[in-house]
Design goal:
alpha/beta, four-stranded antiparallel β-sheet, single chain, about 375 residues, 9 helices, about 25% strand, Alpha-Beta Plaits, binds zinc ion, Aminopeptidase
Length: about 375
Amino acid sequence: MSDPIDFRARAADVYDRVVAWQRDIHAHPEIGFAVERTAGIAAAAMAEAGLVVREGVGQTGVVADLEVPGATRRIAFRADMDALPMDEENDLPHRSTIPGRAHCCGHDAHTAMLMGAATALAAHRDTLGCSLRFIFQPNEEALPGGAPAMIEDGCLDGVDRIFGMHVWPLLDTGRIGVLAGPAMGQPDTWRIVLEGKGGHAATPHETIDPIVGASALVGALQSVVARNVDPLACGVLSVTRIHAGSADNVIPERALLGGTIRSFDRAVGDLLRRRLDELAARIGAAYGLDATVEITRGYPVLVNDAGSCDAAAAALDAFDVVRDPAPTLGGEDFAYYLERVPGAFLFLGNRDEAQGIVHFCHHPRFRVDDAAMRDGLEAWLRLAFAA
Ligand SMILES: [Zn+2]
Ligand SMILES: [Zn+2]
């Protein structure tokens, strides 16, 4: 069946501007909530397109409304704007101009694609069946996330359904992944300090060695997923940091361990946190060490609404839609929106081996495929009709 609306042509009308916006934002990455320049570019484009713009939402977010007279429903589309505190290793003409900051998660493309979609949709608002809201959010990459503050400031008020989209290097460009149910995990971080008694390395009997206790604890923690978690469920408990000692002839006073706990299931998350606590206290005690445990809860599990996934898959049938690709234990603060209103977070294929675009998000050579941006832009235009 041919489309009643020529989405490809409408996307083509704004594509060059999308590429220019992405290049500009990519070259000038901003971190966390301090995304004033990027937010300013988004707000100016939204105002130019004739939308009703609110700035400073959730500190530095932008919300732009496209009102359709007579519409009874409103769909929200969300893009994140923040970069990562890392160096880029791509040799691109528009590579990051700021040392220690880089758009290695594709949020530059998310912002540019959504600006383009809003511009194109505003030019044809008479053909829309529902009102739209465009949400440009800061601080996706760091706890507590940017979504809670934007929700607090009312960005979901009057919204019936919400969609988000992430460039996704696990799918080839041209494909779009739609996964109903739990799609992304809850990523907690944790820190354990084991306090002993330091001393001369020649007299270990006079010390309480935290290194030996820490080693036993690392081994014991590896048994939690293997022995406590239902083998048909899943979870991660990783030790990613150990720090102790400063000299070859000194037994240190304390050891620090750090790591992550991830799960798709609230009960599994509770179990992992409880076992981490118990093992730290009991193994610590067995070695004469005092254990202090600190767990920082990550974003909730991201759960896509089945009805919204069906609506998205139908609206996007011009693409190679992959139903139910593998979920990921990476975290995403879009989960907070989905706790409030039904919707879906979609995976936009961004992989092209011929161009060397194969690195996952957060890799220093992660890169956005221009063809994926064209797809994402067109996907937003189609989703505007997925009410
Ligand atoms: Zn990221
Ligand atoms: Zn991201």
